[in-house]
Amino acid sequence: MKKVLKVLSAAMLSAVVAVGASASVFAATGINAAEQKVLDELNTTVTMNGAEKSLPVRYVNQAEQYFANDCDMTDAQATEVITKIKAVKDYLEGTGKSNWNSLTDAEVEKAVSLAKEAAAVVNCTIEYNKSNKTVSVVTKGSTGTSGSTTSSKPGTSSTSTSQTVVSGSTTGKDAIKTTGFGVPGITAVAGVGFLVVTAAGVYLISTSKKKETIGA
Amino acid sequence: MHNKHHRSSHRSLNGKNFIILPIAFSVLIIGICAAVVVPAGMKFYDMASLFFSDNKHDFSEDYNNIYVPTSEGLEESSTETSKAPTNKVIPITEIDYPHYSDQFGELIIDDCGIKVPLFYGDGDTQLNNGVGIYTGSFIPGYGRPILVAGHNVTYFNGLKYAQKGQKILIRTSYGNYRYEITDVKVRDKDDESAYDLAAKEETLTLYTCYPFDEIGLTPQRCFVYAKFISGPIIDKTR
Lengths: 216, 238
Description:
The structure holds two protein chains of two kinds.
Chain A lengths: L1 H25 L6 H10 L3 E3 L2 E3 L3 H14 L4 H21 L9 H17 L2 E6 L4 E6 L8 E5 L30 H33 L1
Antiparallel strand pairs in A: 1-2, 3-4, 4-5
Helix pairs in contact in A: 2-3, 2-4, 4-5
Chain B lengths: L1 H50 L37 E3 L11 E7 L4 E7 L3 H6 L1 E3 L12 E4 L17 E6 L2 E14 L14 E8 L9 E11 L2 E3 L3
Parallel strand pairs in B: 1-10, 3-4, 5-8
Antiparallel strand pairs in B: 2-3, 2-6, 4-5, 6-7, 7-9, 8-9
């Protein structure tokens, strides 16, 4: 009897754990007051050489959805993130440059490293690709699923904070995508065409060889 | 010596015959296909895709499907406009919020013959299997702009029939949403005024490459704009 009770209680406990785990996997968290403060901060402008620069709205939207879905920020975390975002802004203002594209590589690296610190607070990592000037952000959601990545090339109106928090896209910075006939389709057509023509070439050559042999 | 010379020249001739000529012919034939055959043949391609459609394949390893259709809110006819809809409010914590690459619904435009899987995210996997919401916009019910991409020769080919006044239905696991087309415009792909991601109201913008049925990369997009009619409102605060 005791054994049966043990098995039953173990089964019930694992069921409770499983249900609890699944709830934390699928439930969205919503936007709390701390996250709203961070969003408000992201919506403020930075003054670069007298010019007001704002974060492209698509990044703020992505941040909002990340907060709504995968992040449950505390007040302390929000304060830390806001402090770090302000540090990025102060640094950008201090460079004396009028936009992101006019920054030197060293300045970009410094700004990105500051942004990385802000991102780390909410479980994001940032990588900057010097060659194509793209920023990759990896988010690690509370769901425990594999992180999603996004790349974005900073535009003239963006600040480095624009890439601190995003929620998954692997298709570059542009909102409008290429929605024409897909490359795989073209590749398939080209492949079939190449095979047909090659076969025809082989046939023609073998035929002409036969003719040459008969002629000789 | 003469034989050696003859063999080497024969080899180079073979190289020419087997490599250069086929490539040249391939380029020529593909060029002709692109210019002449493809635009006319796309009707047949579309017809054939009914039999060889991606929908029939199991791509479950490529993406996660969280869509469980609900019939709530479907009572109204998709063509009915006179009834004032009632929009219930649902807490965000109660919905299965999609992650990148999840299929979380379907998009239906009866008048255009469109009924396609709806994804969160607009990368290659999503657009090869349906239409996708840009992650810089929002999901239905959030009360903010929704920007949806789809390929012009497959899932959004029917947008060529889109007209003002037609109804759009988006079905998700957490509710069914109705929109009404307010405008259809062809704009440059780089024209950022074609959409407003900062809008504080729920708007639906669908787009695909233009011209329809054209192969390759096109610089223009056909945008279909729609206004929110009804559906559950997501309460995002806690």
